[in-house]
Specification:
Strand order of the largest sheet: 3-2-1-28
Distance between the termini: 36 Å
Radius of gyration: 20 Å
Number of helices: 3
Strand content: over 45%
Structural class: mainly beta
Length: 390
C-alpha cells in the first residue's frame, strides 16, 4: 500500500489542515468505545490535528454493552446492554471533558444488536438479531430514553440494523438471516413504522445483509453483506422510499482465500455431499464482514472483515454513486466497529480480539489509511462513536 503513502502527500496535508482549521477553535472531539466483556465504555478526547487520543475515563454500562448511537444535538450517547435485563442507557456528554454521566435506563423488548435515532432525535430505533424484530422507543424532550418501546415489529430472520433517511420519511432494516431489506414509511410525528409497498427487497441468497449507510446526497443506499463480503448499491425512490438494485462490489479479494456465503439449503446440500463421500469438505475460513462507514464528503466507503482482520477501501463515483474496490488495510484483530471523525480526517478501528484501538489518517486524495496511533482499550471492544461539540 506504499502508493497511498507516496501520492499527493503535500495536498493531503494541506487539505487535512484546512479541514481541521474549519472546526471552531473551542470545538472538542470525543471518541467512545463500547467494551462488551468489561461492561463499560472508554472515553477519549481526540486531537484533530494529529488524531492522537487521550483517555478521559470509563463509564459503567453492563455486560455485553455493544451498539451505541449519538443524539442529533450531540448532547447524549445511547448504549444498548445485550445481557439481561435488556436495556438502553442514556448518558449525558460533558461538552468540556467528554465524560459520560448515566442519566436514565429504559427496558428494551429483546437483546438489540443495533441502535440509531431518527433525524429529529425524538425516537430511538433498535433491531434484534436473536428475536428478529425492530422496535421504536420514545425519547423525552430531555434527551433521555425512559419508557418501554412503543412499537415492536417482526422482521425476516436476524434483524441486524435499522436507520431512517435524512428526510425522516423512510426507514430501512437489514435482516441477515432472511436475506432481505425491510422498507418502512416513518411517521416523524408519532414514530410509527408502517410497511412500504413492497415491504421487502430480497438480497442474493446467502449474502446476509448486515449494515447500511446512505450516500451523501441520499440518492443511494449501500448495504454490507456479512456472509458474501459484498457491498450492494440501491437507488432510493425519493417519493415512495423504495429501493432498486444498481450494482455490487466485493470487499474481500480472491487472494484472501475465503469462502463466500451459502444459503441454508446450499450449506445443507454441501454437508450432505461431504457426508456421502461425493464431495470434499471446503475447509477455507468464511467471509465475516462487520461494519460499513462513509466519509463525510461521500467519496470513500470502508468495510471491515473479521476473518482477515482488514479494512477494505472502496471508491464512490461522483454522480452515479457506483462503488469500486481499491485495497485492503490490516487492522486490529477481528474488527467489528469503525468510525470516521466529522472532519473526515481520521478513522478509528477496534478489534474484538485486541486490547488496542487504532487511529488512521485518511488520505483525502485517494482514501488510503495510515496508522497514526494505537491506544489501550477494554476487552471485547466492538463499537465506536465519535462526536465533535462546538
Amino acid at each position: 500500500m506504499n502508493q497511498f503513502k507516496k501520492r499527493a502527500r503535500p495536498l493531503a496535508a494541506a487539505i487535512g489542515l484546512s479541514m481541521a482549521a474549519a472546526m471552531p477553535v473551542s470545538a472538542k472531539t470525543f471518541v467512545y468505545v463500547a467494551n462488551a466483556e468489561d461492561g463499560d465504555i472508554d472515553a477519549y478526547v481526540m486531537d484533530v490535528q494529529t488524531g492522537a487520543l487521550a483517555p478521559v475515563g470509563k463509564a459503567v454500562a453492563g455486560k455485553q454493552v455493544m451498539p451505541m448511537a449519538l443524539s442529533p444535538d450531540k448532547r447524549h450517547l445511547y448504549a444498548v446492554v445485550r445481557s439481561k435485563p435488556w436495556a438502553v442507557l442514556s448518558y449525558k456528554i460533558d461538552a468540556q471533558t467528554g465524560k459520560l454521566e448515566q442519566q436514565a435506563r429504559a427496558p428494551l423488548p429483546e437483546s438489540m444488536a443495533y441502535v440509531s435515532t431518527d433525524a429529529t432525535g425524538r425516537f430511538l430505533l433498535t433491531a434484534s438479531y436473536g428475536a428478529s424484530v425492530v422496535a421504536v422507543s420514545p425519547i423525552e424532550s430531555s434527551g433521555l430514553v425512559q419508557k418501554d418501546a412503543a412499537q415492536v415489529l417482526p422482521t425476516g430472520k436476524n434483524a441486524h440494523s435499522i436507520r431512517t433517511d435524512a428526510s425522516n420519511k423512510f426507514a430501512y432494516a437489514a435482516a441477515l438471516g432472511g436475506d432481505q431489506i425491510h422498507q418502512f414509511k416513518f411517521d416523524a410525528g408519532t414514530g410509527q413504522l408502517t410497511a412500504a409497498e413492497p415491504a421487502v427487497v430480497k438480497t442474493p441468497t446467502g449474502s446476509g445483509p448486515r449494515h447500511i449507510v446512505f450516500s451523501r446526497d441520499q440518492k443511494f443506499l449501500y448495504v454490507l453483506h456479512e456472509l458474501s463480503g459484498t457491498v450492494d448499491q440501491y437507488a432510493v425512490d425519493p417519493v415512495r422510499g423504495t429501493l432498486s438494485p444498481v450494482g455490487s462490489t466485493q470487499t474481500v479479494p480472491k487472494e484472501a482465500g475465503l469462502q463466500l456465503g451459502l444459503s441454508p439449503d446450499a450449506a445443507a446440500a454441501a454437508a450432505s455431499a461431504v457426508a456421502a463421500g461425493k464431495a470434499e469438505e471446503d475447509k477455507r475460513p468464511r467471509v465475516w464482514a462487520a461494519d460499513l462507514q462513509l466519509t463525510p464528503d461521500g467519496r470513500f466507503l470502508y468495510a471491515t472483515d473479521r476473518t482477515t482482520s482488514k479494512i477494505a477501501l472502496l471508491r464512490v463515483a461522483e454522480g452515479s454513486g457506483r462503488v469500486s474496490y481499491v485495497a485492503n488495510f490490516s487492522t486490529e484483530t477481528q474488527p467489528r466497529g469503525i468510525r470516521i471523525d466529522p472532519t473526515g480526517q481520521f478513522l478509528v478501528a477496534t478489534g474484538q480480539k485486541s486490547d488496542k484501538v487504532t487511529v488512521y489518517r485518511i488520505d483525502p486524495a485517494d482514501g488510503g489509511l495510515t496508522a497514526v496511533g494505537r491506544y489501550p482499550v477494554g476487552k471485547d471492544a466492538n463499537w465506536v462513536e465519535i462526536v465533535s461539540i462546538p
